[in-house]
């Protein structure tokens, strides 16, 4: 559907886990910057799941 919905607790999109700034700038970001964001996503997913379940990351 390509529609982001932001999580108020984390500040990340519930689906792609990017911030509003990352989403807004994605089309103009250099590939290196995109790879940096992609590298952050696994840790963000773990943190988001911990907040949702109440279990430590």
Structural commentary:
- Helices cover 51% and strands 0% of the residues.
- The protein is mostly helical and 57 residues long.
- The longest helix has 23 residues, at 31-53.
- It is globular and about 35 Å long.
- 5% of the residues are buried.
Summarize the structure in short.
The chain has two helices and no strands. It is mainly α and about 55 residues long.
Secondary structure blueprint with pairings:
Layout: H1 20-25, H2 31-53
Descriptive labels:
mainly alpha; 57 residues
As a percent range, the share of strand residues is under 5%
Helix-and-strand structural type = mainly alpha
Intertermini distance: 29 Å
Quaternary arrangement of the chains shown?
single chain
Q: Total number of β-strand segments? A: 0
Helix-strand pattern: HH
Rg result: 12 Å
Largest sheet: none
Q: Please tell me the overall pLDDT.
A: 92
